[in-house]
Write a structure and sequence with these properties.
Number of strands of chain A: 6
Largest sheet of chain B: none
Number of helices of chain A: 7
Largest sheet of chain A: 4 strands, antiparallel
Strand content of chain A: 15-25%
Number of strands of chain B: 0
Strand order of the largest sheet of chain A: 2-4-1-5
CATH architecture of the largest domain in chain A: 2-Layer Sandwich
Order of helices and strands of chain B: HHHHHHHHHHHHHHHH
CATH topology of the largest domain in chain A: Alpha-Beta Plaits
Shape of chain B: globular
Order of helices and strands of chain A: EHEHHHEEHEEHH
Largest interface: A-B, 11 and 10 residues
Number of domains of chain A: 2
CATH class of the largest domain in chain A: Alpha Beta
Radius of gyration of chain A: 25 Å
Mean pLDDT of chain B: 93
Shape of chain A: elongated
Number of domains of chain B: 1
Low-confidence stretches of chain B: none
Low-confidence stretches of chain A: none
Strand content of chain B: under 5%
Radius of gyration of chain B: 21 Å
Helix content of chain B: over 70%
Oligomer: heterodimer
């Protein structure tokens, strides 16, 4: 549970958001993430995110499906329960192909959906900090991660020059957790102490 | 901006050399194969004609696939093709050349090729005494064959030329005028009907399936279409990559190239799907009249080509073209384009050869020489058509969208 300090800027227009993201990435501040109410085309490229590896997972799941189908059917029809179908050999590969194909597709599809949910931290019961209640409504929210040495006023002033309609400083949990918001967010009651504790744990872990 | 393609001397020389090789090989074949007198004389004579039929039908169908992709993408308001639409247009405008050759070859075989009173390639030409062929005779006869072939080739050539003409009219039209755009869509819709009734059904029955006249398959035309379409995409991508390397087609980016790679990948799998559908139904049914077709191809003298087509047309595209970077890479795309073109040439080979030649098949100087000749003709005609017009589709409604296209 790493609690960090963030500067949050809200934008109300895509045409402002893109130059702002461009400027933020060049400014030297650490851009944590951008939250949008709908998929904005080209934002992943603007944020400099790398190409997803999801398709490699899909390929592996597909291979697993192929192997499962072929292996299982070969075992059933030769060892476990051999039946004579119209005089065909027990190991009739052409008859297995449609099922193999379907199972390959099924494994690849279901496996990719689950992998997608896992890497995007989507699961029933998963909780994350919400930087702005309107980030699912009509505002684009950019969160910048701050260090101890950063001047808060300087960041806020800078964010305002990029066209932000609303800015503030938040202390928040950067990851995800299971459970309820009011129980897990102990930093809500005493944010400064939570931040200091998080820094201390981090310092012990990483020297 | 304008973008003119000037035919490089090397390309012109290569295409002419290939065409000369083709002509020399055909002449040598006419002398040595048609004039053959040995015990295999019948097969030598048949080989001369069947190879010409194989190549001319293959080339006219892949050229036609380039007309089809224009019609299909324009009806779907597809902008991705617009950036390099001069390439399929140029190939489609030359359908008449290959159609004419195919017509000459087919008519020569049907009307002029007889050995001992029967036609070794199209048995149905003399159906007398054969109950199955007599039963099929109302459809499968010389008149029907000639009329259908003539009408199809004329229609294909017309639409190939017409698509190019409508597209070129836009060059001088006012910017973003939609008149030609909707005119193109009307002709595209008409063409799809023609295409469905010819290439996707009747034409393969007459030109290819009737070689094995006792046998039939309802999947056959789809299978031929899949083969021709994926080869057409490979041909377009080869031309696009070539033009990019010559410094032309500045508007075409990796995003457009990626689309061509995707189509080749997807339709290689589609080809395998149809190929296997046809095989599995016959394998399951296990009726002797139907299984003879695959007995000859899979277990008989052709098994090496049978498995080669499966590996070249399915295993290699699925493994090589699966990843995103390889679809955006010129080298892998060129390599796979050549592989796919050759693989589907082999696929057509295995469709036509076993019927008339049986175990007397060859894949030697004559087959490869004729292939070289037709490839040279394709390079020559298409480069000439490309060089005539501006490669940028000026004033096109979708041009801006095509430039911004992200695959």
């Amino acid at each position: 549970m790493a609690v960090k300090k963030f500067a949050v800027a809200a934008y109300d227009d895509e045409d402002v958001l893109f130059p702002a993201v461009h400027s933020l990435r060049n400014s030297g501040y650490k851009l944590h993430d951008v939250y949008t109410p709908f998929p904005v085309h080209g934002l992943d490229v603007a944020l400099g995110q790398k190409e997803t590896d999801l398709h490699i997972a899909g390929f592996i799941f597909g291979l697993a499906g192929t192997a499962t189908a072929l292996g299982f059917m070969s075992w059933i029809f030769t060892k476990d329960w051999p039946i004579n179908f119209g005089g065909k050999p027990h190991l009739s590969i052409p008859a297995f192909i449609p099922i193999t194909f379907e199972l390959t597709v099924l494994f690849a599809a279901v496996g990719m959906v689950l992998t997608f949910c896992y890497i995007n931290q989507l699961m029933p019961g998963v909780k994350k900090h919400v930087f702005h209640p309107r980030q699912t409504d009509d505002l684009f929210i950019a969160a910048i991660e701050l260090t101890d040495g950063t001047s808060e006023q300087e960041v806020i002033d800078y964010l305002k020059t990029t066209g932000a309609v609303e800015t503030n400083i938040q202390i928040a949990e950067e990851g995800w957790w299971f459970g309820r918001y009011d129980v897990a967010e102990d930093y809500e009651t005493n944010p400064q102490e939570a931040l200091l504790r998080s820094r201390r744990i981090e310092a012990e872990l990483h020297g | 901006m304008t973008d003119r393609f000037i035919i490089p001397a090397r390309l012109r020389l290569t295409s002419i050399v290939l065409m000369v090789i083709g002509i020399v090989v055909i002449l040598a074949g006419a002398v040595s194969l048609l004039g053959s007198t040995g015990p295999d004389a019948q097969f030598d004579k048949t080989r001369f004609w069947i190879v010409l039929l194989h190549n001319s039908v293959y080339f006219v169908l892949i050229a036609l696939a380039c007309v089809f992709i224009q019609a299909a993408s324009s009806l779907a308001h597809g902008a991705w093709l617009v950036a390099y639409r001069r390439v399929p247009e140029a190939i489609g405008a030359n359908v008449w050349v290959f159609g004419l050759i195919a017509l000459i070859v087919l008519f020569a075989i049907v009307f002029g090729f007889q050995i001992d009173g029967h036609n070794p390639i199209f048995h149905w030409v003399n159906p007398h005494g054969d109950e199955i062929l007599e039963h099929k005779a109302p459809f499968l006869n010389k008149t029907m064959f000639a009329v259908f072939s003539l009408i199809t080739v004329v229609l294909w050539s017309y639409f190939g030329k017409k698509f190019q003409r409508i597209s070129l009219e836009q060059q001088t039209a006012p910017k973003n005028a939609t008149k030609n755009y909707f005119k193109f869509m009307k002709f595209a819709a008409l063409f799809l009907i023609v295409y469905a009734l010819t290439q996707m059904s009747i034409t393969p029955w007459f030109w290819l399936m009737s070689i094995d006249a006792h046998w039939y398959s309802t999947m056959y035309s789809w299978y031929t279409f899949a083969s021709a379409f994926v080869s057409g995409m490979a041909l377009i991508s080869l031309w696009v990559v070539y033009l990019k390397n010559q410094g032309n087609l500045e508007l075409v980016s990796r995003e457009h190239i990626h689309d061509l790679g995707k189509l080749q990948f997807a339709f290689s799998i589609f080809w395998t799907y149809v190929w296997f559908c046809q095989y599995m139904l016959i394998w399951y049914g296990n009726i002797p009249e139907e299984t003879t077709y695959f007995k000859m191809r899979q277990q008989g003298p052709y098994s090496i080509i049978w498995y080669a087509t499966f590996i070249i047309n399915f295993v290699s595209p699925i493994l090589i073209l699966m990843s995103r970077p390889s679809k955006r890479n010129y080298f892998t795309l060129t390599f796979m384009g050549l592989m796919i073109l050759f693989g589907h040439w082999l696929d057509f080979y295995i469709m036509v050869m076993p019927g008339p030649l049986g175990s007397h098949w060859h894949l030697g100087w004559y087959e490869l020489g004729v292939l070289a000749g037709f490839s040279g003709l394709m390079m020559f005609t298409v480069s000439r058509t490309l060089a005539k017009h501006d490669l940028v589709p000026q004033n096109n409604v979708l041009l801006k969208e095509a430039i911004l296209h992200v695959s």
